Amino acid sequence: MDTEAMTTTEVEAPVGEVWAVLTAPDRWPTWTASMDEVELLDGRFGPGARVRVVQPRLRPAVWTVTDYDEGSRFTWTSTSPGVTTTGEHVLVPVGPDRTELRLRLRHEGPLAWLAHLLFGSRTRRYVALEADGLKRAAEQRARAGAGPDGQ
Question: Chain centroid to CA 13: how far?
Fold first, then answer.
């Protein structure tokens, strides 16, 4: 059984601004309540990077970037006994200063049904919190004129 949570939102910021916020995972706890701690384990975020994530009321997990397309999307996975969790982050430009943000989190494996039963509503809430926080952080960054490489 596969289970998933998805959300799509429009961000009033250029794709480069949204990407800059999205690919600085160590800063995620500053803009989303769904993350308590995030530690980049490999020094640089990109293909193969490992990231340790601590979320409220969940066990810490290590995520590995499995698919990466600079400036537009990345996918990462985390495994626990009986469940592989995959998170997809996709940015689609819809204008010079607007980006569509698509987030999807999927549980797969023989115990995915149990993960859905125990964590389904929390997973949906955390995906929504991440989308909302990323939207606010990227829009604030764009208004401040930080540029795609600044923080």
Answer: 17
